[in-house]
Write a structure and sequence with these properties.
The protein has 292 residues and is an alpha+beta fold. 42% of the residues lie in helices and 14% in strands. It has a four-stranded mixed beta sheet. A three-stranded antiparallel beta sheet has the order 1-2-3, with no helix packed on it. The two termini are 24 Å apart. The structure holds zinc ion. This is IS1 family transposase.
Length: 292
């Protein structure tokens, strides 16, 4: 997670640099300018959020006659509020997104920028002008969203590779010593349409939780009967192997991440891997709208 070269000459790096040592109204203006250059505002959020259709998050109705505009989420805000006449629930453009109930919304792009730079939580908080608790909560929300999005997109031929990593007790009290060294299983999947998912648990468990029955699993299992060379060309797990191997390498170099956070960490790792050739601006934009 190093600062990449492209950020040096990429978009808005100047704007970010200008933030150093600037406070008060001038800082606020700069933040607005950054957000503007990224296309991050309420109308853009609304368009992304309802790209397919306006849908009630409570009852799921998408009948246009059932959902009516009902003022703004807050006085003076651009955030539209809606009333679902089918179930009587109110919702707004942020309901069901990572931005839901986010105070200091204008700091979100700043937060993403420093997160992408690989800064520590403390440093991110300082740079973005939020508390470390908030920075931590935002990171968790974002990664949870990324991980969920990934697992819901598997279909067709899916390569699946199981790997096992040492359990980390990071975050636990040091008096907490396990009776024996345990290991955790992770499954890395890559579907041929390009979607990737990482899940915590065995492949068997993953298969059971995937209700999508049109998945054709490709695993390391040796087939009972010899397969033709034509079949072998399809029945590989090269892509999933590569992703899992890359993760295992990085994991080995880390001091450990709490086991419950493994899928989140893996999702983040995957995001970075997929966007490694992107510009900083494109990465921030991807993340901005990934949580909607
Ligand atoms: Zn409803």
């Amino acid at each position: 997670m190093n600062m990449t070269n492209e950020t040096a000459n990429g978009f808005g790096e100047q704007l970010f640099r200008q933030l150093k040592g600037v406070s008060g109204e001038k800082r606020q203006k700069l933040i607005e300018e950054i957000n503007l250059s990224l296309g991050f505002d309420e109308p853009a959020i609304r368009e992304r959020r309802h790209a397919n259709r306006l849908r009630c998050p409570t009852c799921g109705t998408a009948t246009s006659a059932s959902i009516v505009c009902y003022g703004k989420a807050k006085p003076g805000s651009d955030r539209q509020r809606y009333l679902c006449k089918s179930c009587g629930a109110f919702f707004n453009d942020h309901t069901g997104t990572v931005l839901h109930r986010t105070k200091k919304l204008e700091r979100w792009p700043l937060f993403l920028k420093y997160l992408l730079d690989g800064q520590s939580i403390r440093q991110i908080a300082k740079e973005a002008g939020i508390s470390p608790t908030t920075a931590q909560a935002w990171r968790k929300k974002l990664l949870t969203h990324l991980a969920e999005k990934m697992s819901s997109t598997l279909s067709g031929i899916v390569e699946a590779v199981e790997i096992s990593v040492k359990t980390s007790y990071k975050g636990k009290h040091k008096l907490y010593t396990p009776a024996s060294k345990t290991r955790e299983t992770l499954v890395f999947c890559k579907s041929r349409n390009g979607n990737v998912c990482v899940s915590h648990g065995s492949l068997q468990e993953l298969k059971q939780s995937c209700k999508n029955s049109d998945i054709l699993w490709h695993t390391h299992l040796i087939p009972a009967t010899p397969i033709s060379s034509a079949e072998r060309r399809l029945l590989h797990t090269k892509q999933a192997d590569a992703i899992a191997g890359h993760f295992a390498n990085q994991y080995a170099r880390m001091r450990g991440t709490a086991t419950t956070n493994l899928p989140l960490y893996a999702a983040w790792h995957q995001f970075q891997h997929e966007t490694r050739h992107f510009t900083q601006r494109e990465k921030i934009r991807r993340l901005l709208f990934a949580g909607l």
